[in-house]
Amino acid sequence: MQGYRYNGILRKALLVDIEAARELMIKVELEERFTSHNTLLISQLVDQLLNHLEKITSTD
């Protein structure tokens, strides 16, 4: 039961982080360009967060 509660809290935190990173990526993309180093780094972060979310979601 504790694991489920922890995963639920972690899932919500990840969703907030994913949305914030997505918004930052869009902002940087518009200011710099789609293939800028910063845009690519943020995109990789979004991918990592999504992979983590998928991992904890699949264990529920």
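the 2nd protein, sequnce then structure:
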Amino acid sequence: MQATQQDRQQPVRLEDVRQVGARIGRSKSWIHAAIKRGEFPAALRLSTRCTRWKSTDVDQWIEAQFSGMEAK
């Protein structure tokens, strides 16, 4: 029996800006500027000093970048 993509999905993690930046190879300032331009998913504000991104939102953004490259 072959595992489906849904079976292999990881649980949703909450990642800070450093973790997100490391995953996408971009700086903190690039991430915040891209959010303002509407080019990157916004973070969840958990408190006045705590923001986190859902790993699934970042995964979807990464996939969209690759699908955009294939269309060119």
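The chain has a mean pLDDT of 88. Helices lie at 5-8, 17-24, 28-37, 55-71.
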